[in-house]
Design brief:
Elements (H helix, E strand, L loop, with lengths): L1 H11 L5 H28 L6 H4 L3 H11 L3 H34 L1 H15 L6 H9 L4 H24 L3 H8 L5 H12 L1 H25 L6 H10 L3 H29 L1 H7 L2
Helix pairs in contact: 4-13, 5-6, 5-8, 5-11, 5-12, 6-8, 7-8, 8-11, 10-14, 11-12, 11-13, 12-13, 13-14
Length: about 280
């Protein structure tokens, strides 16, 4: 009786639309920021003294620092360096993963032989790639590009290998007789069928490529990216700038992933339409 009542009640509940979900998603961070601001103001007003208010300043102070830093040529150059390194490495990595994944996927023995090794390196912490990359290219601008490309390759190659390897043999022979090249066959028929998993892997690779780029810039401050600016602010005890650079990095990451999704749907419009069916 109780379970039937719960079932009837749950059926009456309507899920919010797109605008409602967006408002719900915005309401939580806005609420956290407001509580953060009010808590700091109240604590300072009642005479609470703590170094935490210096290390973690008010959101309004951070916002003011962001407003100043986004017009600073040094910040603009740092953001440009970081996005260039992450974008170039990511693009080269995805291109390499598609080429190598297709070649390995065409041979079942080769794919089964190399896939465990690729999975092993895929699950390793990204920080472990840094000393390897340092030994290969040294401490210059090629380091974040190499790290970004390596992460993108490892996360993009597995879905391509499995898609080509597990593609239906009869369908493959049927389409291969009617399609001009294997590249067209892969782009027009194989990729749309694995749109969900491939897009997810590519999105993860994009996020990790930006993250590993910033980490490498933090370790080697001579690279001049936004990661170097974060460490410089930390060493100078400029905590409002530290939080501001973190906010700017978050905005860059959001724009980077949004631009990637936009390019994905422009290049593969049929993928988006088929995945909705």
């Amino acid at each position: 009786m109780r379970s039937s009542w719960i079932r009837q009640y749950s059926q009456r509940i309507k899920m919010p639309g797109v605008s409602g979900r967006m408002l719900c998603g915005i309401a939580i961070p806005v609420g956290v920021v407001l509580i953060w601001e009010i808590a700091v103001v109240v604590c300072v007003a009642v005479g609470v003294k703590s170094t935490a208010f210096i290390v973690i300043p008010k959101p309004s102070t951070i916002l003011n620092a962001v407003r100043i830093l986004i017009t600073d040529p040094v910040t603009i150059k740092g953001v440009a360096v970081t996005l260039f390194s992450a974008s170039l490495g990511f693009s080269l990595g995805i291109l390499l993963s598609v080429i190598l994944g297709t070649l390995l996927g065409l041979s079942r023995r080769a794919s089964l032989l190399f896939e465990p090794t690729l999975n092993f390196f895929r699950v390793l912490p990204v920080a472990l790639y840094v000393p390897i990359a340092l030994a290969v290219v040294g401490s210059d601008l090629r380091l974040p590009i190499l790290l970004s490309g390596l992460v993108s390759t490892l996360y993009g190659i597995i879905p391509v290998i499995r898609a080509v390897r597990d593609y239906d043999d009869e369908k493959w022979r049927f389409l291969n007789a009617r399609v001009d090249s294997h590249v067209t066959l892969l782009l027009r028929f194989v990729i749309p069928e694995i749109a969900g998993s491939l897009h997810t892997s590519v999105s993860i690779a994009a996020t990790l490529s930006l993250g590993v780029t910033v980490v490498s810039e933090m370790l080697l401050q001579n690279l001049g990216g936004i990661g170097s600016l974060v460490i410089a602010a930390k060493e100078a005890s400029q905590y409002s700038n530290l939080w501001a650079f973190t906010a700017i990095l978050g905005i860059c990451g959001f724009c980077f992933c949004y631009f990637l999704n936009l390019i994905w749907h422009l290049v593969f419009p049929w993928v988006n339409s088929r995945s909705k069916k």
